[in-house]
Structures are given as structure tokens and as C-alpha cells.
């Protein structure tokens, strides 16, 4: 790709970016759940997007939908590559003048991380180092990094602010914390604009039904609660298992903070717009409101209209009772607040997509080709 000149990228500050020219964003992991939603939003806002993904977990179907929506030459480029391959990553950066990187690509299941920690340190920590080295070598000025509330571990005091000590308790959280540390240390001697976003539990999907969450079937066992809701409603699994009813919470089940993916990608766009050379911003991205697993299950039943069977089981080791964010900082500094805070509505939007895509993106490909 020969679009933008190298020198222009190196001298452009993020402030001047917004004044003229098309901003070219590299979205790593853009075939995945959150990355594809972010790419859609960026394209809608007239950014130029390059997705890099090796499809180990993402869906080419999501990329195809984006390509159909934005067919104009130069708007969206998809590159099939593995971020673990430093040579290929350097080549990618040498052939494209990116203005910013949104780095979503990762493996992201807590349970799997305890079973296969090296996979996590490799695909999170080591690959982030590779991306950062390439950004540094080619003068890419802005990084927006996908981090997680798992970097906080199990703090005593709720809500979690950005000042809450980070004491992760599983390899997933540790690998993300290490990646944050690498980024922050690098940043001390660089003029890069850095935004680190620590997401809470992400749910929902595109309200217009173009994209959804479609993890590989084999990941179901490690899955997230939202996926379990749809799978139970579809009868793929026999029901929902609520693990632990004797926590010190209002109804005895765990408390989590569920953030809608539309709000989450909005936070990324605001972070990109407000990023400044030499500055770093670290933000929690959550609603600030905790919901119990029981509340979630009720919302799931109402959203899907299916009388899902619910089993109440003993606690699962490693689960913490209560996690929710204090989103004050991101509101003050980025003027961002969560707008889609009705759990049932978020699940309903996602359920609509799930119901019409029983084979994930495959079914939509069959019907459209
Ligand atoms: N989903 C959540 O609730 C949540 C919460 C906190 C943080 N996050 C973070 O958000 C980011 C995106 O998560 P997601 O839920 O969209 O996951 P996902 O698995 O749907 O997407 C990740 C994408 O990265 C790609 N990828 C992985 N390794 C790669 C490699 N080596 N080279 C190229 N591509 C590679 C996968 O193919 C996939 O498309 C991750 O960094 C994750 O840690 C997610
Ligand atoms: C994706 O990348 C990983 C390294 O992160 C690699 O081990 C794996 O084989 C790749 N998968 C595909 C389908 O290319
Ligand atoms: C992650 O890294 C391991 C090597 O530790 C590799 O085998 C695997 O395929 C990589 N990618 C994914 C998505 O698991
Ligand atoms: C903050 O965002 C709201 C919309 O959510 C907008 O109306 C308002 O003008 C913004 N304030 C600033 C200072 O940008």
C-alpha cells in the first residue's frame, strides 16, 4: 500500500491529524468480537482501516461484512498475518504508514490462561512487544491498548479506580499487566501518544445487526457468561450454571460490571481523538454499576424469551465476589459515559444476531453468496 507518505506520518502530531487527511488506523485482531465492532465504528467515522488478524480466533465473515459495507478502494484493507512473526509485522509497518494502532489481538479467556499460561505470555505480552518495536521503528505516533480489569486481581475495595493497585491473580491478567508495563516504560522516553483502556465485562453487539460475537465452538467451555446465555437459550448447552450463591453480596451471587460493546468502541474513538504526543492516559471502561449473576440470568431469560434452566452450584475456585469500576476519570477526561446500560436490551440486541446466525458468520456467508 503506497497511500500515505512516510515523513508525513512521522511529523504529524495527533492534534494535527484531526485537521486534514484521512487517518489510517491499524486494528490488530479486527476479525474478532471487539476489534470488528471497533473497525466498523472507525470506518463509519471516515477513518481508513487496516485489519491484521491471523483468524486463529476471529472470523473472516466479520471482515467480509465490513468489506461489503465499505467497498471503496483504500477504505479497508485486510491482512492475514500472525503478530507472533516479527519479520512479517515489520514488513506490514514498512509497507503502510499508520497514524495509530488499536491493539486488540490477544487470547482472552481466564480459564484457558491458567491451563496454558505460555500461550498467554506469548500471544499477549510478547506480541505487544513486537507491535511496539515496529511502531517505534516506523514512527507510528499513537497506540490505543486493550487492557482489562483482570489486571487488578481481587481488590478489597470497590469500586475499582485507576489508582487501585494492580495485583493480577491469573496468567491472563498478569500477561496484560506486563504488556502495560512494557508500554509505559517505553513511553517514558518517547513522544508516543498512549491510551490504555481497561475493560470490564464486554457484552452486546452492533444494534443494526451486522456484527456479533462468534467464538470458536471449542472455546465454549472457557466461555464468557454472555456466550453461555445464548448457548443455553439455543439449547446447545442444557442450561446456565450459577457457581456460588454464598458470596457476601446482595443476593449471594458474584457481582460484575457489564459494558456494552457499542459504548466500548465509543471510548476507543474518544481516546484516539484525545490522544496527544508524549501523553499517556489510563482509563477504566465500565458502567460503574455492578450486576449480580442472578440479575444477569433474569435479564438473559427476559431478553431471549426462553425459560432457561438454571442450576445453582458451589463456588468455582478463583472467582472473586465483586468487581465493578469507578468510571469518573474517563468521564472527566474523555467526556465518555456508558449509554447502553440496560442489561436486558444489550442482551436482546446480541440475541437477535445469535438467532439469525446459528453457525456464527458461516450461515450469513451461505445466504449472501
Ligand atoms: N471480551 C471481553 O470481555 C474483554 C474484556 C477485557 C479485555 N478484552 C480484550 O479485548 C481484546 C479483544 O478481545 P475479544 O473479546 O474481541 O477477543 P477475540 O478472540 O474475539 O478477538 C481477538 C482477535 O485477535 C486475533 N489474534 C489473536 N492472536 C493473534 C495473532 N498472534 N496474530 C494475529 N491475530 C491474532 C484473533 O484471531 C481474534 O480475531 C483482547 O485484547 C482482550 O484481552 C476483552
Ligand atoms: C496464529 O498465530 C499464532 C501465534 O500467535 C500461531 O501459533 C498460529 O499458528 C497462528 N494461526 C494461524 C491459523 O495462522
Ligand atoms: C499462541 O501462542 C502459542 C505458542 O505459545 C501458539 O501455539 C498458539 O497457536 C498461539 N495463538 C493462539 C491464538 O492460541
Ligand atoms: C460531552 O459529550 C456530550 C454528548 O455525550 C456532548 O453533548 C457535550 O458537548 C460534550 N462536552 C464536551 C466538553 O465536549
Structure in words:
The structure is a single chain. The strands form four sheets. The chain has a seven-stranded parallel β-sheet with strand order 3-2-1-4-5-6-11, with helices on both faces. The protein is of the alpha/beta class and 369 residues long. It is built from 14 helices and 13 strands. Residues 1-19 and 364-369 have low confidence and may be disordered. It is 41% helix and 16% strand. Strand 2 (48-53), helix 4 (60-69) and strand 3 form a beta-alpha-beta unit. It starts with 5 loop residues before the first helix and ends with a helix. It has a domain at 6-212 and 258-286 and 323-340: NAD(P)-binding Rossmann-like Domain (Rossmann fold, 3-Layer(aba) Sandwich). The structure holds nicotinamide-adenine-dinucleotide and 2-acetamido-2-deoxy-beta-D-glucopyranose (NAG) (3 copies). Belongs to the NAD(P)-dependent epimerase/dehydratase family. Its EC number is 5.1.3.-. Pathway: Carbohydrate metabolism; galactose metabolism. This is UDP-glucose 4-epimerase. The chain crosses the membrane at residues 21-40.
Q: Which series of helices and strands comes N to C?
A: HHEHEHEHEHHEHEEHEEEHEEHEHHH
CATH topology value of the domain at 6-212 and 258-286 and 323-340: Rossmann fold
Estimated share of beta-strand residues: 15-25%
The CATH architecture of the domain at 6-212 and 258-286 and 323-340 comes to 3-Layer(aba) Sandwich
What is the CATH superfamily label of the domain at 6-212 and 258-286 and 323-340?
NAD(P)-binding Rossmann-like Domain
Q: Total number of β-strand segments?
A: 13
Give the termini separation.
28 Å
* Strand neighbour order, sheet with most strands: 3-2-1-4-5-6-11
User: What number is the mean pLDDT?
Assistant: 92
Structure annotation, total helices:
14
Amino acid at each position: 500500500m503506497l497511500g500515505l507518505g512516510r515523513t508525513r506520518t512521522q511529523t504529524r502530531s495527533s492534534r494535527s491529524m484531526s485537521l486534514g487527511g484521512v487517518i489510517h488506523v491499524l486494528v490488530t485482531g479486527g476479525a474478532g468480537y471487539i476489534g470488528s465492532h471497533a473497525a466498523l465504528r472507525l470506518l463509519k467515522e471516515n477513518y481508513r482501516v487496516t485489519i491484521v488478524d491471523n483468524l486463529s480466533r476471529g472470523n473472516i465473515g466479520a471482515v467480509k461484512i465490513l468489506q461489503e459495507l465499505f467497498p471503496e478502494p483504500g477504505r479497508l484493507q485486510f491482512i492475514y498475518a500472525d503478530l507472533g512473526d516479527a519479520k512479517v509485522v515489520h514488513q506490514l509497518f514498512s509497507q503502510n504508514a499508520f497514524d495509530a494502532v488499536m491493539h486488540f489481538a490477544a487470547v482472552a479467556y481466564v480459564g484457558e490462561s491458567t491451563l496454558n499460561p505460555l500461550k498467554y505470555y506469548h500471544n499477549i505480552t510478547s506480541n505487544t512487544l513486537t507491535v511496539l518495536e515496529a511502531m517505534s521503528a516506523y514512527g507510528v505516533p499513537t497506540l490505543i491498548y486493550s487492557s482489562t480489569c483482570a489486571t487488578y486481581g481481587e481488590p478489597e475495595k470497590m469500586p475499582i479506580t485507576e489508582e487501585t493497585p494492580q495485583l493480577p491473580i491469573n496468567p491472563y491478567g498478569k500477561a496484560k499487566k506486563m504488556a502495560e508495563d512494557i508500554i509505559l516504560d517505553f513511553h517514558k522516553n518517547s513522544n508516543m501518544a498512549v491510551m490504555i483502556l481497561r475493560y470490564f465485562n464486554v457484552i452486546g453487539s452492533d444494534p443494526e445487526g451486522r456484527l456479533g460475537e462468534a467464538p470458536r465452538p471449542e472455546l465454549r467451555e472457557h466461555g464468557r457468561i454472555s456466550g453461555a446465555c445464548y448457548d443455553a437459550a439455543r439449547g446447545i448447552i442444557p442450561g446456565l450454571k450459577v457457581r456460588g450463591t454464598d458470596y457476601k453480596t446482595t443476593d449471594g451471587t458474584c457481582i460484575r460490571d457489564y459494558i456494552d460493546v457499542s459504548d466500548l468502541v465509543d471510548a476507543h474513538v474518544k481516546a484516539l481523538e484525545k490522544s496527544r504526543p508524549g501523553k499517556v492516559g489510563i482509563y477504566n471502561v465500565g458502567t460503574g454499576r455492578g450486576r449480580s449473576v442472578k440479575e444477569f440470568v433474569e435479564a438473559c431469560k427476559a431478553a431471549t424469551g426462553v425459560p432457561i434452566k438454571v442450576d445453582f452450584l458451589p463456588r468455582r475456585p478463583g472467582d472473586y465476589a465483586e468487581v465493578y469500576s469507578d468510571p469518573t476519570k474517563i468521564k472527566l477526561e474523555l467526556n465518555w459515559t456508558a449509554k447502553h446500560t440496560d442489561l436486558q436490551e444489550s442482551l436482546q440486541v446480541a440475541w437477535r444476531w445469535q438467532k439469525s446466525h446459528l453457525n456464527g458468520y458461516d450461515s450469513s456467508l451461505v445466504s449472501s453468496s
